[in-house]
Write the structure tokens for this entry.
Amino acid sequence: MSVATVTSAGDPEGENPTCCSETHAVSQSAEAATGESLYALEKKLVDQRGTSIGLDVYRGHPVLVTMFFGHCRDVCPMQAARIKAAIDSLGTEERKPLRVLMISLDPSRDTPPALATLAKTYGVDTPDWTFATASEDDVREIAAALGIRYVRLPDGSFNHSAVVTLLDEGGVIRGRADGLTAPLAPLLARSKSH
Amino acid sequence: MVHIPGATFEPAFAPAPGITRIDVSAFFVDRRPVTNGEFLQFVREYPRFRRSSIPGILADKTYLSHWSNDLDPGEGVSPNQPVTHVSWFAAKAYCEARGDRLPSWVEWEYVAAADETRRDARSDAAWQQRILDWYARPSHDALPNVGMGSANIYGVQDLHGLIWEWVSDFHAMLIRPDSRDDGGRFFCGAGATAAADKSGYAIFMRVAFLSSVEARYTTANLGFRCARDVAGKRETRP
């Protein structure tokens, strides 16, 4: 999808065609205008390298976001595999802009080294995939914003809904695949449609 | 705020398989829901949560829609009515601005199980019926002010008969266990088998309500109150 450039009324840059005629990351004023960007949460995460990143680490790209926990034996790996397979089925040019952000529901156990191991195990140890944790409270807010329901069980595992959300370049939610059997192809198609 | 002593609590509805007896630590909770007047103070101090500037991801289009404008509830809205049309994000931010938090679902139900003289009135059919009668009534045209109803044994008011209330973990209600690959067991069946006490229908109403909302939703009869850890105020700020 094309990346929108926005100039607000009275914006001096809007009077300069060379500034705003090129595609670039969606501006702050665009986010204010839409108001629906997930990035308005302004959350800090830590990735699998132990680097502090923003929730908007992939701003400027369409992003598939989902939440998981590392000790999940079957469903979460399946979800990662589904996402990888869906992306791999695209042509080289189509898949180039896409990024994947996997956020853990279990920050106490999904430490950066554990996440790094998961990335390798899932075969997605590339710059296009980020595994990240946040504080428990931030996890709660991010899940709430994504409409993901979860509860920690007495054995330390989680019941959680399996949702893959598509964000556009500005972090606005453009689609969701809700459930393990919800097809991802329509979501990926939507990432190209603008 | 009032102090609620810790206890082991058996919710009538288990929030997830295996969670039937819960040790609730002592905590503090607001006697009454947060009011329009109190929420106005908050948005004065935190412009991000004013009606015209709150990001869409944090609240839907009817956020504070009953107010005249950002900083004026207006003539027809009493400062002492419970504030409604607030999202979970806004409610959470209000509590955090005070160094507090939203109560958890278990904490809320634990306090709500009490009547005027008993910590746990749930076996009293007459008390249960009083609560169900409220749910059966059509919505008020104008919400009463907070604090008009009788207090329960802890001194907490307005848990029944005024508004629905946000809790910190509303998102934990009635989850389809996708992550556990239970072969597509849907929540209706899970809910029925998880229920320990089927006489308290009101709790099902509340759980059904909480499981139907999203964090950014706002509605006319949904407000909140805050809680605080016994250890004291928190550092988190909105």
